[in-house]
Amino acid sequence: MSFQALADHALSLPGATQDVKWGADWVASVGAKMFFVAGPHPGPFTGCSFKVDEHRFLELTGLPGLKPAPYAARYHWVAVENAKALPLSELKALVTRSHELVAGKLPKKKRVELGI
Fold first, then answer.
1. Alpha-carbon gap, residue 15 to 26, rounded angstroms
2. Which residues form a coiled coil (predicted)?
């Protein structure tokens, strides 16, 4: 499994768009709000981060290969440093949940516009 597989999955979610922020981070957003970050860009991704439910934050950051995301931990973002830290299916589910958490905070009009 690679971080690229997670980035591809993130981009397949409803209303997802991509861009590069801070010069070297590939970002997937929904409604102009980030829900998945991988980097460095360009080149093979060496890590990624995404938002998680508050009640899962401590559980996930206690696992080997995962840690609180720099600058975003207070918003319950987790950084994945090892692509084998969790099975691909679970990582994809976490990215999907990140998308849901962020999309759920968008105004109803924007969600309808995006088909969410």
1. 16
2. none
